[in-house]
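Protein modeling request. Please complete all fields; requests missing the sequence field cannot be processed.
Requester role: graduate student
Desired output: 3D structure, token encoding
Chains: 1
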Amino acid sequence: MQVQRTTICQERARRPRSQAICRERAAPRQVGARCLRSLVILSAVLLAASSGAVSLAQESHIGNLTGNAKRGKQLYRRYCEGCHGILGNGQGENAIHLDPRPRDFTAGVYKCRSTPSGSLPYDTDLFETIGRGLHASAMPSWFALTRQERVDLCAFVKAFCPRFREEKPAPPVPIPPETANTSDSIVRGKQLFKKMECWKCHGQEGRGDGPSAPTLTDNKERPIVPYDFTTGERFKCGQTNEDLYRIFMTGLDGTPMPSFQEDLKPDQAWDLVHFLRTLQVSPEKQMSLKQISLRKHPSAKHNEQAMATPESKKQDEARNNN
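Delivered output (322 residues):
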């Protein structure tokens, strides 16, 4: 898509250089005592900061379920803290090994939302993200947790960011009924793909290899890779046509992917959805398209059989016998 960074300007705190605690001439017992004291102090600071930053009075609501941050805290420490960190800032002990990095909950900036760019997500957005996971990342699906547990996690995650106590999410971006998926719609979508310069990031064939791809960074100035539409049927924030439409209109906050709500009419967005779907050819779809092509062009099947090697013919016969 167009390279329009939606970065959030936050001044980086300078970290003082650490001074060596254990000196060469110190006795072994003295070294151990000093290191132990440092660890105790560090742990106390983290725990104090964590308890002060998180309001356990935070709630979330999904249908008739009410999420409780106090219950969610225990779940978070068991399942989420290793990546997202004790402070919810995305700096857990596993974070340095992950690409993309875990979400920083303290900023209140989320990719997957039903709300306009810059707005907080709804509880349902967080709930669905936890259950679905994030494609092409280390964030798995947590459907193994009960609905109540996921609602409790939502409440605790919200507690990391004061914005949830001070603001309300904007009204969700409307999604009108899908237009007909026709060849004309696909052609118009392909034209929009070029006109809106989506190819600069995603590449001419949608493989995420556009000329701007190597230069892209997220809101924390870390390199970020554009989505490769040829890898499958799932997107970062869902897998349905409605999900893809929503991504166009809301944008993915914290990434270079902007909102096109002011640039695309609803029917144009649906045309773009239909075109991008043609780039997502899964093995099953490839086989289906091949069978359709062979029915329409019997000569192609004859040519394919003529070019087959004796080994491949034997393999085909074995499969048919089984």
